[in-house]
């Protein structure tokens, strides 16, 4: 039981780290979209975005998946409907993470065509997914 609780603690810490990045990165995109291409400001955003993804978001996502699946196996939750819903939302969150990676590469290549307003809207998507995930985990409705 003690190992399970340590894995759970690691899972919660990884989720918090991943979500911090998922909420901050699109905000950086908002500011990046307003910076002149090739400017010192744009280059600063490129560095910030790359470091955030590489050193915080990607490791946190990997740890989230590993610890989450471990908890699901150890807890015998794969038969629970709430876990199926949660996994669907976490897969969507992971896909969004991948999309953000593509967007970051477009900024670096100078091919981003999206405006700041688009990224302001995209900034809300991780929040909505997170709300659904938390509700499913805490309330376990099905």
TrEMBL record:
<keyword id="KW-1003">Cell membrane</keyword>
<protein>
    <recommendedName>
        <fullName>Protoporphyrinogen IX oxidase</fullName>
        <ecNumber>1.3.99.-</ecNumber>
    </recommendedName>
</protein>
<keyword id="KW-0560">Oxidoreductase</keyword>
<comment type="similarity">
    <text>Belongs to the HemJ family.</text>
</comment>
<keyword id="KW-0349">Heme</keyword>
<keyword id="KW-0479">Metal-binding</keyword>
<keyword id="KW-0812">Transmembrane</keyword>
<comment type="subunit">
    <text>Homodimer.</text>
</comment>
<dbReference type="GO" id="GO:0006782">
    <property type="term" value="P:protoporphyrinogen IX biosynthetic process"/>
</dbReference>
<dbReference type="GO" id="GO:0070818">
    <property type="term" value="F:protoporphyrinogen oxidase activity"/>
</dbReference>
<feature type="transmembrane region" description="Helical">
    <location>
        <begin position="52"/>
        <end position="73"/>
    </location>
</feature>
<comment type="pathway">
    <text>Porphyrin-containing compound metabolism; protoporphyrin-IX biosynthesis; protoporphyrin-IX from protoporphyrinogen-IX: step 1/1.</text>
</comment>
<comment type="function">
    <text>Catalyzes the oxidation of protoporphyrinogen IX to protoporphyrin IX.</text>
</comment>
<dbReference type="Pfam" id="PF03653">
    <property type="entry name" value="UPF0093"/>
</dbReference>
<feature type="binding site" description="axial binding residue">
    <location>
        <position position="11"/>
    </location>
    <ligand>
        <name>heme</name>
    </ligand>
</feature>
<feature type="transmembrane region" description="Helical">
    <location>
        <begin position="79"/>
        <end position="100"/>
    </location>
</feature>
<keyword id="KW-0472">Membrane</keyword>
<dbReference type="GO" id="GO:0005886">
    <property type="term" value="C:plasma membrane"/>
</dbReference>
<keyword id="KW-1133">Transmembrane helix</keyword>
<dbReference type="GO" id="GO:0046872">
    <property type="term" value="F:metal ion binding"/>
</dbReference>
<feature type="transmembrane region" description="Helical">
    <location>
        <begin position="12"/>
        <end position="31"/>
    </location>
</feature>
<keyword id="KW-0408">Iron</keyword>
<dbReference type="InterPro" id="IPR005265">
    <property type="entry name" value="HemJ-like"/>
</dbReference>
<feature type="transmembrane region" description="Helical">
    <location>
        <begin position="121"/>
        <end position="139"/>
    </location>
</feature>
<feature type="binding site" description="axial binding residue">
    <location>
        <position position="86"/>
    </location>
    <ligand>
        <name>heme</name>
    </ligand>
</feature>
């Amino acid at each position: 039981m003690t190992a399970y609780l340590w894995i759970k603690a690691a899972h919660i810490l990884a989720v918090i780290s991943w979500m911090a990045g998922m909420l901050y990165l699109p905000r950086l995109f908002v500011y990046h979209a307003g910076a002149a291409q090739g400017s010192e400001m744009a280059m600063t955003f490129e560095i910030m975005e790359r470091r955030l993804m590489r050193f915080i978001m990607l490791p946190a996502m990997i740890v989230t998946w590993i610890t989450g699946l471990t908890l699901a196996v150890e807890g015998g939750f794969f038969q629970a409907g709430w876990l199926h819903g949660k996994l669907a939302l976490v897969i969507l969150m992971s896909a969004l993470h991948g999309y953000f990676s593509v967007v970051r590469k477009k900024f670096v290549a100078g091919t981003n065509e999206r405006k700041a307003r688009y990224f302001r809207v995209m900034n809300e998507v991780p929040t909505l997914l997170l709300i659904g995930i938390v509700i499913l985990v805490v309330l376990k409705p099905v």
